[in-house]
Amino acid sequence: MWAGVGEKIYSLDLRLVLGAFCPWESAANKIKMIVKIENVYKAYNKTPVIREMSLDIGKGERVVILGPSGCGKTTLLRMIAGLIHPDKGKLVIDGQTVADNGKCIIGPESRQVGMVFQDLALWPHMTSYKNIEFGLKVQKIPKTEIRERIDTIFEKVQMVQFRNAYPGDLSGGQQQRIALARALVTRPKILLMDEPLSSLDTDLRHVLMREILRLQEELAITMIYVTHDREEAFSLATRIVVMKEEKIQKTRTAGQIKEWL
Ligand code: ADP
C-alpha cells in the first residue's frame, strides 16, 4: 500500500524537469499557467504574513507548499480561494485577474476553486448527500444534473453506501472522502487542500494519499496542497515549494525531489 505512494516520489514529470533545466523546452512545451501569484503581500494588524511572494503554477501540477506552522500557508490558500485578499500584488487564475492591489475583482463563488479545510467543515446536521449537494444548489445547477454529478462523485470517492449517513456516523477517513467529494463535485479548475490529513492516523493517511493521487490524475485537476509534513509533500508533489518566514525559500520539481531525499 505504501509502495504505491512511495513510487510517486520517483515518478518524474518530464515536462517540469525539462522546464527546470532547459528553458527552450519550457517554451516549446508551453505549459499553461493556471495560477500566477505576483508580488503578493498580506499583513494582519500590520504584521506581515506573506511578504512579496511570486509563484507560477501550471495546469495539472501538484504543488505542495511545505513549511512550519504559522509561516502563512493557510493565508496563501485562502487568498487563492478568495476568502481573504492580498493587501498588495496581483493574483491571476486561468488568465483572469481575480485580485489586484487590495481589490477583489472576482469573488470566491466565481473563481472555480474547490477547497478542503483542515477541520473538513462538514455540516453535522446534513447527510453526506446534502453536504455535497449544497455547492451545486448555490451554483443553480439543474436538479437532474445535480443528481448525476453526485452519483458519479460518490462512486469516485468510493462512498456510495454512505450517501444518507450524517458526518457523526462516519469515520475520520470517510468524512475526509465526503469533504473531498464536496470540493470536487463543483468541477473546480483548482483543488486547494489545507493539511487535510493532519488529524488521521498514519495508515489512513497513506490510504488517502493514494486516493488523492488517483483522483487528481483521473480528473487531471491542478492541486495546491499545504502541509508541514515532509513525507506527505514528497509523496504527493510534482513540485514542492518551501515556505519559511513569510517567504518562499526554494522550489523543487519532482526530479529534484528525488535528489533531495
Ligand atoms: P500556517 O497555515 O502556515 O500555519 P497561517 O497562514 O494560518 O499559517 O498563519 C500565519 C500567521 O498569521 C500566524 O502567525 C497566525 O497567527 C496569523 N493569522 C492567521 N490568521 C489571522 C487572522 N485572521 N488575524 C490575525 N492573525 C492571523
Mean pLDDT across all amino acids: 83
Provide the CATH topology. Rossmann fold
Biggest sheet statistics:
6 strands, mixed
Shape: globular
CATH H-level superfamily title? P-loop containing nucleotide triphosphate hydrolases
End-to-end distance: 20 Å
- Tell me which CATH architecture applies here: 3-Layer(aba) Sandwich
Q: Total strand count, please?
A: 11
Keywords:
disordered N terminus, binds adenosine-5'-diphosphate, 11 strands, Rossmann fold, five-stranded antiparallel β-sheet, alpha/beta, 261 residues, six-stranded mixed β-sheet
Could you explain how this protein is built, in words?
The chain is α/β, with parallel strands linked by helices and 261 residues long. The chain has one domain (2-29, 59-84, 105-256): Rossmann fold, CATH 3.40.50.300. It has 10 helices and 11 strands. Strand 5 and strand 6 (103-104) form a beta hairpin. Residues 1-28 have low confidence and may be disordered. Bound molecules: adenosine-5'-diphosphate.
Fold blueprint:
Elements: H1 2-10, H2 14-21, H3 23-29, E1 33-44, E2 47-58, E3 62-66, H4 73-81, E4 88-93, E5 96-100, E6 103-104, E7 113-116, H5 128-138, H6 143-156, H7 172-184, E8 190-194, H8 202-219, E9 222-227, H9 230-236, E10 239-244, E11 247-253, H10 254-260
Parallel strand pairs: 3-9, 3-10, 7-8, 8-9
Antiparallel strand pairs: 1-2, 1-4, 4-5, 5-6, 10-11
Adenosine-5'-diphosphate is lined by residues 44, 49, 67, 69-75.
